[in-house]
Design goal:
By secondary structure, this protein is α+β, with helices and mostly antiparallel strands. Helix content is 38%, strand content 15%. The chain has helices spanning 52-59, 72-82, 89-104, 107-124, 148-153, 201-215, 229-238, 248-259, 265-273, 277-290, 292-307, 323-331, 340-364, 371-383, 419-423, 428-436, 451-457, 475-478, and strands at residues 2-5, 14-19, 27-33, 129-134, 140-146, 160-167, 175-182, 188-196, 222-225, 243-246, 388-393, 396-400, 406-409, 414-415. The strands form three sheets. Strands 4-5-8-7-6-9-10 form a seven-stranded mixed β-sheet, sandwiched between helices. A four-stranded antiparallel β-sheet has the order 11-12-13-14. Strands 1-2-3 form a three-stranded antiparallel β-sheet, with no helix packed on it.
Length: 543
């Protein structure tokens, strides 16, 4: 029997209930007095029964199937409107955390489940590669994941891979590493994921060693990253044949931070995007005349062969930055505080959706090329109509009609403007030559840009592992001991969830109105009637 009474012992309000039968889980109300006889002074909305556990259980459904869900203030609103309880911000924060645990599991449980989760991924997605590295005490150290579908699809990608890392915000922190290619439509094509303790040389070497096993190491392969010493050394150690390029955006940020010369960025990006060495030299002379130390830095410290495609020993195509990796990191901004297994689940869900959506797009394409490449080629076809073309020999054509003439070899697919050579997409001169030779311009395009390759890249499916109750995992995997990594003692105060800006990166400051004190606009655009006399301090700001 259960008896619920008012907090005032002299109040008549009470409810008495008991089980229908002793073994039943259902109760029946035996007696209910619904009128309070106590004073209103004894009543308040701070219900003792509204613990963070109860709050978390009630608000948990709002976190199912979403990455973010309501924050602590949203939980406070939920408790006030749905439960009619006033709770503190701290209790709301704890309730939200408990709801996350109910939906996504605890961080400690995630380590225990990780081997079984990887087993199911490999079982349901043939060819998938997973690795877990532990220390001498069986504590988690690193993990690696590459879906078999992506590995097989890499055959239809340009052999340019961007690598980078982003910090995780959960209890056990760590760094999420990612290696991604770019498909023929200019979209990210994730190849491998890893979680390590930090971006150090040992961690990068371990991750790149696993990556090398699935993508190989050839002269055709190009790896692009920032210029962090740990990445540079790891790449040079692990990949002996592949070429390493420096992200042009990170180089630009280093220039702005080190030399305080943002006004030279126009010339710098013109040099980055130049196809011919003659044009590049002209832009470098311009930089050298204004900022000799910047030119020296780009040539000697960075190295032309690291960031300029004309000097690059391999083939970079039109990929000069790691933006494709940064976009993946921003995509996971809300999931980076999840337990590891829940984070990997989000990655799998997003990749499954991308593969399906892009397969649908590829099936509906009515042109030989992907949509983005077709949109690049069409204007060139229109521009080529006014060009004067003459044949020099059976495979070579001279194209005039602009400031920059071009000599095109339609057999070796080259042009003196170098745009055709590097991007592997016909330039204006090549389009004009193809028209004169009565050759299909599509025959000059790299197969990586074709609908066929695009469809083959996304032709397979990435399958989810389903709920844990459906898993069929051998006992030796279930019983595998995997302990959480040791973490430093937690600092006092609110945990930091935003990263420090990278070198040369500046965060936008919110504009604040000097008239009303609100954010988002200046005084000139304020519609408030407060403080009509110009120059007076805001009347609604203390002090």
């Amino acid at each position: 029997m259960w008896v619920i009474e008012c907090i005032d012992p002299n109040c008549s309000w009470r409810l008495r209930t008991s089980k229908i039968v002793p073994e039943s889980t259902k109760f029946v109300i035996r007696k209910y007095v619904g009128v309070h006889s106590c004073s209103l002074l004894n009543r308040n909305a701070n219900h003792r029964q509204a613990t963070y556990v109860v709050i978390g259980e009630q608000v948990a459904p709002q976190y199912v199937g979403v990455e973010k869900g309501p924050g602590p203030k949203g939980v406070q609103t939920f408790a006030r409107t749905e439960l009619r309880a006033q709770i503190s911000y701290y209790k709301a924060w704890r309730g939200r955390k408990h709801a996350h645990t109910l939906i996504r599991g605890s961080p400690e449980q995630s380590f225990h489940v990780l081997p079984s989760y990887f087993h199911m991924l490999e079982k349901l997605n043939p060819g998938t590669v997973t690795r877990i590295e532990v220390d001498g005490e069986r504590r988690f150290k690193y993990l690696f994941l590459a879906f078999g579908v992506a590995m097989r699809g890499f055959r239809y990608m340009r052999k340019v891979v961007g690598i980078d890392g982003t910090f995780l915000k959960g209890q056990y922190r760590g760094v999420l590493l990612v290696a991604t290619a770019q498909d023929g439509n200019g979209q990210c094509y994730p190849l491998a994921w890893g979680i390590v303790d930090s971006e150090n040389e040992d961690a990068w070497s371990w991750f790149l060693t696993q990556l090398k096993e699935i993508i190989g190491d050839t002269n055709e392969l190009a790896l692009i990253s920032d210029r962090a010493p740990s990445i540079k050394k790891a790449i040079s150690t692990v990949f002996e044949k592949a070429h390493h390029g420096a992200c042009a955006w990170h180089v630009a940020q280093n220039i702005k931070n080190k030399f305080k010369c943002a006004d030279i960025m126009g010339s710098y990006w013109s040099a980055v995007n130049a196809y011919r060495c003659e044009d590049f030299t002209g832009y470098m002379i311009e930089i050298s005349n204004r900022y000799p130390r910047v030119a020296e830095y780009l040539e000697n410290e960075v190295g032309f062969e690291k960031w300029y495609r004309c000097h690059y020993p391999g083939l970079m195509y039109n990929i000069t930055t790691t933006n494709m990796v940064e976009s993946l990191n921003s995509m996971l901004v809300n999931a980076r505080d999840f337990p590891y297994v829940a984070l990997l689940d989000v990655i799998q869900e997003k990749m499954s959706k991308w593969w399906n959506d892009r397969r649908i797009v590829a099936t509906a394409i009515t042109t030989p090329l992907t949509p983005s490449r077709e949109s690049e080629l069409r204007p060139r076809f229109a521009q080529s109509n006014g060009r004067q073309t003459s044949q020099l020999n059976p495979i070579t054509y001279h194209v005039k009609g602009s400031e920059l003439e071009g000599v095109v070899d339609i057999f070796n697919k080259t042009c003196t403007c170098k745009e055709f050579d590097i991007d592997k997409l016909p330039c204006v001169h090549a389009v004009a030559a193809a028209h004169h030779a009565q050759v299909s311009v599509y025959s000059l395009v790299s197969p990586y840009y074709t609908k066929e390759y695009y469809l083959l890249a996304y032709g397979e499916t990435i399958y989810p592992v389903g709920s844990q109750s459906q898993w069929d995992v051998p006992n030796e995997v279930v019983t595998r001991i995997l302990l959480p990594r040791e973490v430093k003692e937690k600092k006092r105060g609110r945990p930091k969830t935003s990263r420090f800006p990278s070198v040369g990166e500046f965060r936008k400051r919110k504009n604040r109105c000097g008239k009303c004190g609100a954010y988002g606009y200046y005084k000139k655009k304020c519609n408030s009637q407060i403080g009509s006399t110009e120059g007076n301090p805001p009347t609604n700001v203390p002090g």
